[in-house]
Design goal:
The chain is mostly helical. The chain has a single domain, classed as 434 Repressor (Amino-terminal Domain). The protein is 67% helix and 0% strand. The chain contains 4 helices and no strands. The longest helix is centred in the C-terminal third of the chain and has 13 residues. The chain is globular, with a radius of gyration of 10 Å. The termini are close together. The mean pLDDT is 94.
Length: 63
């Protein structure tokens, strides 16, 4: 699963907008949009924040 797919999956599962996810992860909304639409890889710190957010929400990904 690509990072873009993970972001889309999390938003769909939690029924939240890009803006809401961005606020909860601590990044800009445009960053979340770029992760999804352009497939940009997050910076290390942003990726760790996203992983921590997923862990807090008990969301796991199949590798």
């Amino acid at each position: 699963m690509t990072f873009a797919e993970k972001v889309k999956y999390v938003r769909a599962k939690l029924l939240i907008t890009q803006k809401e996810l961005a606020e909860q992860v601590g990044v800009a909304m445009v960053t979340v949009a770029r992760w999804e639409s352009q497939g940009l890889q997050p910076r290390f710190l942003a990726e760790k924040k996203f992983e921590a957010f997923c862990e807090k929400k008990n969301i796991k990904f199949e590798e």
